[in-house]
């Protein structure tokens, strides 16, 4: 991929922990991982050594001793822990600016701080379920895939924020095939893995145990995986999910495609709770994000850990530098 340039970090919800962990991440990384923050400097912690920049190209030099800010003027001030809908338009503009700059080749990747959807809806009529769908719309993509990644594991849920009872209805052969294909392409194009190995979890306990615990595996999942193997994809499964995530099993694949939210997220959050990174596959640019929310309850207290944001920035940098 070899995308040059610094990483564009959108500000996220100003009343959450986004501004303070951005400054902590900068202090930990400095020039080792150049990025710039897009937002209103009034929302940063008091005493932050800010350098306002006019273009992303200025960020690398600034990072050594100053926190680089591409300035936006927001409509409201900030009370930590209490979202102000007057800031909604600015939050949205921050995301749009990050995408525009990476599409123009001025930034290498987009990293997004957590947003508060209700404030965006109340203040700007935000019409998307979340960050990912908004980014897909900005990129003109109808289908993208969420990956959670850490040093120990990469997982992709085929279905995400739906009730468990709805999973068998939503999970179709077309959806699963598309999820696997986007995952394989992302591993090749953004992670630099020439021949990605993908393990697919079964839907039912013990992957159905020959139909004793559900028939979806026999009805169509086995056949789909077999067909994709015949097409040349290095894919295995369906595997019983309870034996897919121990160390020896993880060594045999580059990513695991899971059937529903908790099947994917429980293992990665158990293995590496503080350092998991949200990656959106299927976009024409790199997008990472820390795997946590706005944390209004601790915003402004100094307790927030920047670990996940640091990993998100470092992963974006590695992805941008991959062949």
TrEMBL record:
One Pfam family it belongs to: PdxA
Cofactor remark: Binds 1 divalent metal cation per subunit. Can use ions such as Zn(2+), Mg(2+) or Co(2+).
UniProt pathway annotation: Cofactor biosynthesis; pyridoxine 5'-phosphate biosynthesis; pyridoxine 5'-phosphate from D-erythrose 4-phosphate: step 4/5
UniProt GO MF annotations: 4-hydroxythreonine-4-phosphate dehydrogenase activity
Gene3D superfamilies in the record: Isopropylmalate Dehydrogenase (3.40.718.10)
Residues engaged in binding substrate: 131-132, 269, 278, 287
Keywords: Cobalt, Cytoplasm, Magnesium, Metal-binding, NAD, NADP, Oxidoreductase, Pyridoxine biosynthesis, Zinc
Keyword Metal-binding: yes
Reactions it catalyzes: 4-(phosphooxy)-L-threonine + NAD(+) = 3-amino-2-oxopropyl phosphate + CO2 + NADH
Localisation: Cytoplasm
Binding site for a divalent metal cation: 161, 206, 261
Names of the cofactor(s): Zn(2+); Mg(2+); Co(2+)
Parts of the chain that traverse the membrane: none
Highest taxon above the source species: Bacteria
EC annotation from Swiss-Prot or TrEMBL: 1.1.1.262
Family from the record: Belongs to the PdxA family.
Role summary: Catalyzes the NAD(P)-dependent oxidation of 4-(phosphooxy)-L-threonine (HTP) into 2-amino-3-oxo-4-(phosphooxy)butyric acid which spontaneously decarboxylates to form 3-amino-2-oxopropyl phosphate (AHAP).
Binding partners and assembly: Homodimer.
Further information: The active site is located at the dimer interface.
Name listed for the protein in its UniProt record: 4-hydroxythreonine-4-phosphate dehydrogenase
Organism: Leisingera aquaemixtae
Name of the encoding gene: pdxA
